[in-house]
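User: Thanks for the earlier help. One more: Gliding motility-associated C-terminal domain-containing protein. Can you show the sequence and predicted structure together?

Assistant: Of course, both are below.
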Amino acid sequence: MKPINTHQLKNIKVNSFFELKSILLLLSFFILQGASNVFAQITLTNPNVTPAYAVTDVLLGQGVVATNITFNGSPFLINNPQNSVREFSNTSAAFPLSGGVLMQTNGGSVVTDADLSAITPNNVTNGAILEFDFVPDGDTLSFSYIFTSAEYSSFTCSNFNDVFGFFISGPGITGPYSNNSQNIAIVPGSNNIPVGINTVNSGSASGGSGTNCSNIDPNWVANSVYFTTIYNSIYNNSPAITTAPNYNGSTVELTANASVICGEVYHIKLAISNVSDQSYNSAVFLKAGSFASEPNIVISSNNVTSNYLDTVIVEGCDVGSFCFERTLAQSLDTSIVYYELSGLAIRALDYTFTNLPNSGDSIVLPPGVTNFCLNFNPTDDGFYEGPQDIFLTAYTINSCGDSTFSYADIWIVDKPLDLITDAGADTTVCSGGTGTLNGTFTIPTNQIKWTYTGPGNVVFTPDDETINAGVAFDTPGQYEFFLTEKNDSCALLKVDSMIVIYEELTFNVSSDTTICENGEATLFANATGATNFEYHWGHTTDLSANQSIMPASQTNLTVFARSDSGCVTPTETIVVDVLPPLGLSSTASQTICPGESINVTSTVSGGNGGPYNYTWTDPTGAIVGTSNIINVSPAVTTIYTVFVSDDCESTPKVSTSEVVVAELPAVKFGVVDGEICTPAEFVIFNQTDPLLVQDTYWYISDDQVFMQNDTINVLITEAGVYGVRMVIVTPDGCVDSLSINEMLTVYPKPKADFTYYPKPATILNAEVNFQNYSEDADTYYWSFEGGNPIFSTLEDPKTQYPEGVAATYEVELISTSMFNCKDTITKIVAVIPEVLIFAPNSFTPDGDELNPTWKPVIEGIDKMNVTVEVYNRWGEKVWESHNLDVGWDGTYGQGGSLVKVGAYVWKIQATNLINDDKYVWDGVLTVIY
């Protein structure tokens, strides 16, 4: 035997082989029934794990030696605990990794890495980068991992996904990354497509366009076979790795592989980072002991006989084997595999080999042979010994001259006794058609299978070979289930049966209903699908199907049915609504005037909503109406009573309404003076009792109208006879009136007028005669200011004014009719002077004081309306004036030059002082120097 290389032996790690199914199956031999409910979760086993420990003591498997470990590019951080590199363990069978190294962005520091940046177009932020050199013993490197992220549910096919990669470099490796490294975290079967959120997902875009995923891998939808969400509940139950939000999607367990050369030095970088931000974290789980370089020879153990058992063989029933296998490429030369046997089972006593190639402790694989299986039979000794294992340790010498080790084991168990199989007690499955079978069987490693007979189909979940399978029925009825337990190696078989009655209950109850006040509701419940039922009402202990209730207000009644077998229907609620009681109101007290009619109205609410029954009566009990409105015209104040009911059980209601007949006053009015001359103003006043008057309206026959006045002043300018009508409105709104025809008489007024002559009178002819032009007058009275006589009653008098005195005098005439109506007129009589003019015929404007100006003098004219003009002999105007007090000084023009000596023509225009008659005078004057 070649001695073992102690350097290699020191670094050998036993992998998780002892955690395989064989041990679980062995232990299950001692458990006949029952299960333990363990709260499955992922925990962080050691808070003080350092990156160096995570690599050498957790991640590395057999055939690999690691050196030069760094974390985030620093060799000094590897011996300090880091939040982003932790050791985990798992207690859930649903999560395929029982333990290992967790690399996460959560808690990671900011990193920079060219290789991660090459995978994403965006900036990497925080994460973890673990690097080390290693020397493989074999020609391949592999390790197992699961990638997970909180970005799966919202950012699939977006541009902001977190990234990770396993970048390996060394002899024989060429890639696009730094140091010619190659990313071995790739989609299985792809052309180096990196594993990521946009390449391995559910196959549906959730945060971006599917084009973003297609640009990376056109086959991204098919990659969904490598994606799962079944680990999400484990993440949610694992507070040690909880992030906000939690991880919501993962890859299945994947393997990173690389071809290597034994004995050569390789470098690997395990890197993960957030992208763009530091939220929505991601992580990668690295399986413990899986970072390994496979030995030249792979050893496996098998149960040759049983199709069900694997690494367990039964005494007297099964044949076991250890198989030694190498690759076709390794079969060019002869390989010698040395092995040692250990364990609880003793060779030759508990088992014997049947095809030993030699008596030694080695297997020889000649050229061209890739495998050899060493078979053995367990000894059926009839004794109960408990499980016994055979542990085989094999080693070979690789091409580097080092010893590489492989291991395998198998368990021998005692031949089972008679089977004790129990399908469980008969039971009932209620509405919904699902239940769980509760059978037990003798040995958990035996095969079991459920079969059935019945009226319909049954679906088993997860399958019909699960002892506590869920069952779903599609047809109600009685089913018989058969539980078959068998051991194919030992030809053991046992069948037990049980009955399942599937009751699909239907349940109908009364519809919601409405009753009146004082009414009764009759309710029912009816269940089908079983023979007998009890009906459990929420308001009573009575279990009858029918119930009668008389609630005072809305009531919610609950009821469910229970069959004899205990199946219960859903609880139903019946709403019994109670209509409100009748509400009645009738018209409040109303007042009418005598002879009027009025409507009296009743308003009803509640009850059954109508139609309602109405009965109106008067104080004598006589019925006066049967509808909600009556029209009445009582002669005196009367109270009416209405009785209302509905066609339900509501309590009838009564209401009363009063109709008051108002009092009318005696209408009366008068006038202060009913006969007046025009323009006549009459004073008319109301004499009606003021307590019975609210509004007053007056109507005069000449269409004059007055309102809201007890006394009115009526002005009439046209002579004639006029009538008056007064309308009053009482405080109760009653209207009455009084009309008096020819109440007002308006007499015509005479028209005074006169004239006189001469006109005008002059100071030399001052006697004036008056001519009377008055109309409709009988007598006259004249007043003459300054005259003689001073007054007169003659129809056409005359008077003498003082002679020689120019003045104006007032004359007043009062004309009186036969009705003593008067008219007065006043006029002015003017006595004017005679018109006199003096115009000099020459003057001397020579500068001395003698006769220097020419100034005419005129009397008897309007001196405010006079024009004086002087013309030369050529007809040119040389002077003009409008003021008789200013004379001409003989000059003309703007320069004030004296005119020449000679004759000049003057012209004077003026108006009469009294009547504006016009005067024109002209003459000749001579200028002398």
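User: Great, one quick takeaway?

Assistant: Residues 51-59 form the longest helix (9 residues).
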